[in-house]
Amino acid sequence: MVHGRLGGGPMQLLSAAGVCASGIAALDAAVAKVRLGDRERAAVVGSELASRWLRASRFNGGNDTDAHFLRWMLSDGAGSVLVEARPRPDRPSLRVDWVRTVSLAHEHAVCMRAGTDGSSPRPGGPGRTWAAPPRPSRPG
């Protein structure tokens, strides 16, 4: 939809996923492409509709701490930015000096399990979630 409105012929595409990190990952890629001279400009567009699956009823009967944290910290949103090689003389421009995305999750206990059901064979393992398709029933 955005490309159709922008026009401009064929465009390279990157689809970054991961509610909290996807927008900054896309910005990082766009800035790198422009900085390297591979592109004159890049449009970064993102939207998330996390509230459809972040319902308290999906988390251990509706009163789990994860439910409250995830529901209010990882909610819906959208935004866009145009990255260009040079500042715009007709409007304010921001310069990106660096983008750094680093996970330090290995240093802490797992805190966001997104509805896991505890079925993992090892403690802290992935297990199944309410987002997984139901298991087929076995005949009698």
Q: Explain this structure to me?
A:
With 140 residues, this protein is of the alpha+beta class. The mean pLDDT is 76. It is elongated and about 70 Å long. The chain has helices spanning 2-6, 22-35, 65-73, and strands spanning 41-48, 77-84. Strands 1-2 form a two-stranded antiparallel ribbon.
Keywords summarizing the entry:
about 140 residues, alpha+beta, two-stranded antiparallel sheet, 3 helices, 2 strands
Question: Mean pLDDT, rounded to whole units?
Answer: 76
Count of beta strands: 2
Number of helices: 3
Q: Please describe the biggest sheet, giving its number of strands, its sense, and whether it closes into a barrel.
A: 2 strands, antiparallel
Q: Which strand order do you get reading across the main beta sheet?
A: 1-2
What is the terminal-to-terminal distance?
A: 50 Å
Helical coverage, percent range: 10-25%
**Strand share of the residues?**
5-15%
Order of helices and strands: HHEHE
* Alpha carbon gyration radius: 20 Å
Write the layout of secondary structure elements.
Elements: H1 2-6, H2 22-35, E1 41-48, H3 65-73, E2 77-84
Antiparallel strand pairs: 1-2
At a glance:
The protein is α+β, with helices and mostly antiparallel strands.
